[in-house]
């Protein structure tokens, strides 16, 4: 029974994909949209069933479909593991996924390839479910690659624009570089433990039978972290995420805010027992997480494209999550993943609503004063911005605070880095709000006349997500955390980890709140009081220019990696390819030459033929009579 | 040195010489004459073998019929003084080499097959008389004999057809 | 009747025949005039006939001479047809130089 339900969960989106691929065009736009949405809703319903069941009895469900690879004593089966972590992830993946599908029905209505869009979205949800539900590293890897593929397909959805195609390629290639790290990690684990199954790995490692292998375990952990960097956009593999904004906004919301980019965090949380054995790697994770958070926040301060601001904000928040992971606070990272999914998805969908109303305008310098024309969008985005800035009592406050508290107790420099990043987050989020919704409208008259609130299918998901962003903090209040209790079976016993609410903690909470208000206030002063406007691209100078150009990281990568590889392929094309071609063609040329020379025998000259006769006769006679 | 041997040598010299001259003279009429001499000398060889009938038939068929045909054709084509261009030098040298090659190869064959040089037996029967020849021809080789007649008929028809003038 | 070969010996006849045949071959390869080529072919045929008769005496068998009969018949037929072809060629091409017969070039 459980197996069948789990298969329904897994295959409903795949079925939606197949229907939309083969029949989508003939079914019409609305029908294909609803089929796509319905598939994900079915998955969500099954997930809810399992979730309630596991919340009650706390027993994970292990399903094995068939023996996949079996060599000597190395067995991998194709199976699924429905435990607390995977069901939690599935809840918000399918839940937010359903909302975004619903949103896309209206958002993509004008596009002629809408059925293809829903097909790809369903395929993505299918692969994400595979990733999350996999019972061993290899099934997870299938899902890992699959979501990378769907990300590529969806970023380059409007394929007629070559820039979008380049962005899609960049995303996929950087993902692949990370995947190499993941594969190396999988190989090392397979060699060390001869199993890739999560349950078996946990038993083996916690049973303490591997003390001599610390170097290799650290190597495996580092390699796995590199894979997570590629997927979750940490330094140095983060530059694809801002470029990925070339895809339609629902794609940005689903893949690059709520689900795919959290896959790295999911993997590390899944293998927390492995990472606990490699404290050096955990340090590296924390440092990179903190550095990414700060770097992305600084870039986000000066961006003018509304989606790019949100993209850098995502990278920054992911950095905070890795910071938590690096400090060993896995439950807190998961908490932040969930709250971030709520408010970031809401922000992206809201920005999509704005872009839709302005018929594709994404530059904030051409927006303004939209709060009267689009009240629902304004209010939901305001709530989400407050949440991301960490304002009490919204969800973001609780999760971000936990991270900062953990950092304070373990590693003071990282606490400072995190706090600065949070203050910057508040600043640029409200810069976005003020530029978009306040003051006067700076666009064309044409756009001004067509300004109106988006229809229900768009605003309904916004409202749901805003509500979740508000109350989301309730799942893990300090001192009484349902989430920590729920996830406890997954993690090793850590004495005294729960944060007692003492004076230090209250102080820290107050500091964080003050920091948030400083950020909001500064943005208010700059953009409302002083009515400053960001300048035209050509007039940006000095350090702002460096920030605006993303510290020229893309250019550096281009010079270090892209140009040499292009030169190498040119070398191969010009020399080695040519040599090989002439060698192969040489065979044909040799045959032609031989036949050309042989043709001369048929000269038609009777005298020559007579010579040939005599020679032949002599040869034959010699052979017949003399050579015996 | 018996008389027969001397006669043989003389006849051989005439045969070879006239054959050689057939090839080397420029005038085709002279070639034809030399060839006739060659045929007559071969008929002489046949007589040495006591094959009288064969010798006479040889003279009649070859010198009497075939050479006449040749002469007619030469005169038809009006090849007077020889205006024939020689073959390229290298081909002429190659012809000489092939001549030597052919000699060598054939000699080697005969040498290898080693004919028994011993006493040559003689049956008492005069196997070369017309009577015996006729009997052999018409008893054992009847079928080829008949076919030969068909062959000659075909050749005749073919020749007439080939040399008809095309009607314009 | 003594076998004439007792006095001459068969090897001499073999030599004679071989050299005559080779002269015929030489003639075929040496000259450009088609008629001379034909004559050389006749020389070759005659060399062979001579050898047949020699061996017929050697084996004291009449079959050799009978074969010579047939060979002569065939030679006559061949000359007739060959000369007819030659005349056709002469009518079409104006000369009987065998180096002009190049239509089979390919």
From TrEMBL, chain C:
<keyword id="KW-0874">Quinone</keyword>
<keyword id="KW-0520">NAD</keyword>
<keyword id="KW-1133">Transmembrane helix</keyword>
<comment type="subunit">
    <text>NDH-1 is composed of 14 different subunits. Subunits NuoA, H, J, K, L, M, N constitute the membrane sector of the complex.</text>
</comment>
<feature type="transmembrane region" description="Helical">
    <location>
        <begin position="35"/>
        <end position="55"/>
    </location>
</feature>
<keyword id="KW-0472">Membrane</keyword>
<keyword id="KW-0812">Transmembrane</keyword>
<dbReference type="InterPro" id="IPR001133">
    <property type="entry name" value="NADH_UbQ_OxRdtase_chain4L/K"/>
</dbReference>
<comment type="similarity">
    <text>Belongs to the complex I subunit 4L family.</text>
</comment>
<comment type="function">
    <text>NDH-1 shuttles electrons from NADH, via FMN and iron-sulfur (Fe-S) centers, to quinones in the respiratory chain. The immediate electron acceptor for the enzyme in this species is believed to be ubiquinone. Couples the redox reaction to proton translocation (for every two electrons transferred, four hydrogen ions are translocated across the cytoplasmic membrane), and thus conserves the redox energy in a proton gradient.</text>
</comment>
<dbReference type="GO" id="GO:0048038">
    <property type="term" value="F:quinone binding"/>
</dbReference>
<protein>
    <recommendedName>
        <fullName>NADH-quinone oxidoreductase subunit K</fullName>
        <ecNumber>7.1.1.-</ecNumber>
    </recommendedName>
</protein>
<keyword id="KW-1003">Cell membrane</keyword>
<feature type="transmembrane region" description="Helical">
    <location>
        <begin position="67"/>
        <end position="90"/>
    </location>
</feature>
<feature type="transmembrane region" description="Helical">
    <location>
        <begin position="12"/>
        <end position="30"/>
    </location>
</feature>
<keyword id="KW-0813">Transport</keyword>
<keyword id="KW-1278">Translocase</keyword>
<dbReference type="GO" id="GO:0005886">
    <property type="term" value="C:plasma membrane"/>
</dbReference>
<dbReference type="GO" id="GO:0050136">
    <property type="term" value="F:NADH dehydrogenase (quinone) (non-electrogenic) activity"/>
</dbReference>
<comment type="function">
    <text>NDH-1 shuttles electrons from NADH, via FMN and iron-sulfur (Fe-S) centers, to quinones in the respiratory chain. The immediate electron acceptor for the enzyme in this species is believed to be a menaquinone. Couples the redox reaction to proton translocation (for every two electrons transferred, four hydrogen ions are translocated across the cytoplasmic membrane), and thus conserves the redox energy in a proton gradient.</text>
</comment>
<dbReference type="InterPro" id="IPR039428">
    <property type="entry name" value="NUOK/Mnh_C1-like"/>
</dbReference>
<dbReference type="Pfam" id="PF00420">
    <property type="entry name" value="Oxidored_q2"/>
</dbReference>
<dbReference type="GO" id="GO:0030964">
    <property type="term" value="C:NADH dehydrogenase complex"/>
</dbReference>
<dbReference type="GO" id="GO:0042773">
    <property type="term" value="P:ATP synthesis coupled electron transport"/>
</dbReference>
């Amino acid at each position: 029974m459980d197996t069948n339900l789990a298969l329904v969960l897994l295959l409903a989106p795949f079925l939606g994909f197949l229907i939309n691929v083969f029949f989508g065009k003939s079914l019409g736009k609305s029908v294909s949209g609803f089929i796509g949405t319905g598939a994900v809703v079915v998955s969500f319903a099954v997930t809810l069933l399992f979730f309630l069941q596991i919340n009650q009895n706390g027993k994970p469900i292990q399903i094995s479909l068939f023996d996949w690879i079996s060599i000597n004593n190395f067995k991998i089966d194709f199976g699924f593991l429905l435990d607390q972590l995977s069901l939690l992830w599935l809840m918000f993946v399918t839940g937010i996924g359903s909302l975004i599908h619903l949103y896309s029905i209206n958002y993509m209505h004008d596009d002629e390839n809408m059925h293809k869009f829903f097909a790809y979205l369903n395929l993505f949800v299918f692969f994400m479910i595979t990733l999350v539900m996999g019972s061993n590293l290899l099934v997870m890897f299938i899902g890992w690659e699959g979501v990378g593929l769907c990300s590529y397909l969806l970023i380059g959805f409007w394929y007629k624009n070559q820039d979008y195609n380049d962005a899609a390629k960049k995303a996929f290639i950087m993902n692949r570089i990370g995947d190499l790290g993941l594969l190396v990690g999988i190989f090392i684990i397979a060699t060390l433990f001869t199993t890739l199954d999560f349950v078996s790995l946990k038993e083996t490692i916690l049973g303490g039978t591997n003390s001599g292998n610390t170097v290799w375990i650290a190597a495996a952990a580092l390699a796995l972290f590199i894979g997570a960097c590629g997927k979750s956009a940490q330094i140095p593999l983060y530059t694809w995420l801002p470029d990925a904004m070339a895809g339609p906004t629902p794609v940005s919301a689903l893949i690059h805010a709520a689900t795919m980019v959290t896959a790295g965090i999911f993997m590390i949380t899944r293998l927390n027992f492995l990472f606990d054995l490699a404290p050096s790697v955990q340090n590296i994770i924390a440092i990179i997480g903190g550095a990414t958070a700060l770097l992305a926040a600084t870039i986000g301060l000066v961006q003018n494209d509304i989606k790019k601001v949100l993209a850098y904000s995502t990278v920054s928040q992911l950095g905070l999550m890795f910071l938590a992971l690096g400090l060993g606070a896995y439950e807190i990272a998961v908490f932040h993943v969930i709250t971030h999914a709520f408010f970031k998805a809401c922000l992206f969908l809201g920005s999509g609503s704005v872009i839709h109303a302005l018929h594709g305008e994404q530059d904030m310098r051409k927006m303004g004063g939209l709060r009267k024309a689009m009240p629902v969008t304004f209010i939901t985005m305001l709530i989400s911005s407050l949440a991301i800035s960490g304002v009490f009592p919204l969800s973001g406050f609780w999760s971000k605070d936990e991270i900062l508290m953990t950092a304070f107790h373990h590693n003071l420099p990282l606490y400072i880095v995190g706090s600065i990043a949070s203050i910057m987050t508040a600043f640029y989020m409200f810069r976005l709000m003020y530029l978009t919704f306040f003051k006067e409208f700076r666009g064309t008259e044409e756009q001004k006349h067509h300004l109106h609130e988006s229809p229900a299918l768009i605003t309904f998901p916004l409202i749901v997500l805003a509500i979740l962003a508000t109350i989301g903090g309730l799942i893990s209040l300090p001192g009484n955390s349902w989430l920590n209790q729920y996830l406890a079976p997954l993690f090793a016993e850590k004495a005294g980890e729960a944060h007692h609410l003492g004076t230090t903690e209250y102080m820290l909470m107050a500091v964080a709140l003050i920091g948030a208000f400083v950020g909001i206030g500064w943005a208010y002063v700059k953009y409302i009081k002083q009515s400053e406007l960001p300048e035209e691209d050509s007039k940006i100078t000095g350090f702002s220019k460096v920030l605006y150009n993303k510290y020229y990281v893309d250019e550096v990568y281009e010079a270090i990696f892209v140009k040499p590889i292009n030169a190498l392929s040119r070398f191969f094309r010009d020399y080695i390819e040519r040599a090989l071609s002439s060698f192969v063609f040489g065979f044909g040329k040799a045959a032609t030459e031989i036949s050309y020379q042989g043709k001369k025998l048929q000269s038609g000259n009777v005298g020559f033929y007579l010579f040939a006769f005599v020679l032949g006769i002599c040869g034959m006679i010699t052979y017949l009579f003399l050579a015996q | 040195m018996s008389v027969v041997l001397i006669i043989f040598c003389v006849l051989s010299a005439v045969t070879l010489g006239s054959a050689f001259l057939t090839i080397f003279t420029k005038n085709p009429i002279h070639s034809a004459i030399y060839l006739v001499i060659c045929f007559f000398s071969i008929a002489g060889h046949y007589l040495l073998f006591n094959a009288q009938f064969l010798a006479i038939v040889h003279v009649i068929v070859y010198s009497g019929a075939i050479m006449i045909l040749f002469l007619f054709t030469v005169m038809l084509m009006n090849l007077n003084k020889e205006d024939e261009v020689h073959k390229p030098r290298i081909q002429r040298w190659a012809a000489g080499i092939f001549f030597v090659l052919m000699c060598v190869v054939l000699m080697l064959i005969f040498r290898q097959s080693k004919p028994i040089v011993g006493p040559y037996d003689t049956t008492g029967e005069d196997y070369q008389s017309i009577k015996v020849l006729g009997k052999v021809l018409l008893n054992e080789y009847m079928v080829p004999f008949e076919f030969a007649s068909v062959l000659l008929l075909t050749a005749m028809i073919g020749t007439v057809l080939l040399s008809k003038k095309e009607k314009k | 009747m003594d076998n004439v070969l007792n006095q001459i010996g068969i090897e001499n006849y073999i030599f004679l025949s071989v050299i005559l045949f080779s002269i015929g071959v030489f003639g075929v390869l040496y000259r450009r005039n088609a008629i001379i080529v034909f004559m050389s072919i006749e020389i070759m045929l005659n060399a062979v006939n001579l050898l047949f008769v020699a061996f017929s005496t050697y084996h004291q068998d009449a079959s050799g001479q009978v074969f010579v009969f047939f060979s002569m018949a065939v030679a006559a037929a061949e000359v007739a047809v060959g000369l007819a072809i030659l005349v056709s060629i002469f009518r079409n091409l104006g000369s009987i130089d065998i180096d002009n017969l190049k239509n089979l070039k390919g």
